[in-house]
Amino acid sequence: MFDRNQQRLRRARKTRAKIAQLKAVRLTVHRSNCHIYAQVVDVSGTKVLAAVSTVDPELRKTVMYGGNVKAAVEVGKRIAEKAKSLGIEAVAFDRGGYKFHGRVKALADAAREAGLKF
């Protein structure tokens, strides 16, 4: 009936609706087989304040393959650094409908260790 991506997006809508009620800046995650992406989105949900992904040339120098936990940890550290440089201390974590497991969990844990609160 529905494919996996439609089911994931349905789960993500619930999370985003709750975060919108809280009026919080959100850290959103998207993952593909080969890469992982993280963005800090403002309260209105219309403006991206900071973004990091394994596609970035500066990150490609340190991480050869973007689809593993090591790459997710590096992205988590860098997005936390960028957010803190913008003066953002606390965010709501939007896992994008993915399970909080593996690369998504590694990114979240690395961002927490780097000083981001959620």
Give me the secondary-structure topology:
Blueprint: H1 4-22, E1 26-31, E2 36-41, E3 48-53, H2 57-60, H3 69-85, E4 92-94, H4 103-113
Parallel strand pairs: 1-4
Antiparallel strand pairs: 1-2, 2-3
Helix pairs in contact: 3-4
Q: What is the overall pLDDT average?
A: 96
Count of helical segments? 4
Q: Give the SSE order as H and E letters.
A: HEEEHHEH
CATH topology label: Nucleotidyltransferase, domain 5
Q: What are the low-pLDDT stretches, counting only 5+ consecutive residues below 50?
A: none
Work out the strand percent: 15-25%
Distance between the termini: 35 Å
CATH architecture identity: 2-Layer Sandwich
As a percent range, the share of helical residues equals 40-55%
Let me know the number of strands: 4
Question: Rg to the nearest angstrom?
Answer: 14 Å
Write out the strand line-up for the largest beta sheet, numbering strands in chain order: 3-2-1-4
Outline type: globular
Structural class: alpha+beta
